[in-house]
Amino acid sequence: MGSRKNSPILITKKPDLNDLVLRAKLAKGMGHNYYGEPTWPNDLLYIFPVVILGTIACNVGLAVLEPSMIGELMDPFAIPLEILPEWYFFPVFQILRRRPWGDHVVPTGSDQPLILLF
C-alpha cells in the first residue's frame, strides 16, 4: 500500500478525433506521433531524406572548401631515412636505397658476373 502513494499517476491524453482541424492536419500528413500518426513511414520518410542530404551537403562543402592537401605530395617509392632493417637485410637495403635505376629489381647471385663486368 505504501508504494502506491509514492508512485506517480500516469495520464494518457488522447486526441479528440472529432475535431475538424486535427482531422484535416492528419489527412494532409501534418500530424504528430502524439495524435496517433505512426512513426513509420510518415515521420521517418519525411525527415530522413533531409538529414541524409544535409550530411552529404556538409561533406561535399568541407571537401571543396578545405581540401586536405597539407604539405608536399608523398612518393610511395621513397624510403624513409629513419628506418633500418635487420642486420642480414642491410646490404640489400643499401643497394635498393642508393641505386637510381628503378625500384623493382633486386640483384641476385646470377647478376653478380654482370655487375662485376661493369
Could you please describe the fold and organization of this structure?
This protein has a domain of 52 residues. The model has no long low-confidence stretch (mean pLDDT 76). Helices cover 47% and strands 0% of the residues. The protein is built from five helices and no strands. The longest helix is centred in the middle third of the chain and has 27 residues. The N and C termini lie far apart (104 Å). Keywords: Electron transport, Membrane, Photosynthesis, Thylakoid, Transmembrane, Transmembrane helix, Transport. Its main location: membrane. InterPro entries: Cyt_b/b6_C (IPR005798), Cyt_b/b6_C_sf (IPR036150), Cyt_b6/f_cplx_suIV (IPR005870).
State the share of residues found in helices, binned by percent: 40-55%
Report the major sheet.
Answer: none
Number of H- or I-type helical stretches: 5
Strand content: under 5%
Quickly give the structural class.
Answer: mainly alpha
The backbone outline, from C-alpha atoms, is rod-shaped
Number of strands: 0
Secondary structure elements and pairings:
Blueprint: H1 2-6, H2 20-28, H3 39-65, H4 90-98, H5 112-117
Summarize the structure in short.
The chain is mostly helical and 118 residues long. It has helices at residues 2-6, 20-28, 39-65, 90-98, 112-117. Helix content is 47%, strand content 0%.
Features:
5 helices, rod-shaped, 47% helix, transport, Cyt_b/b6_C, mainly alpha, 118 residues, electron transport, single chain
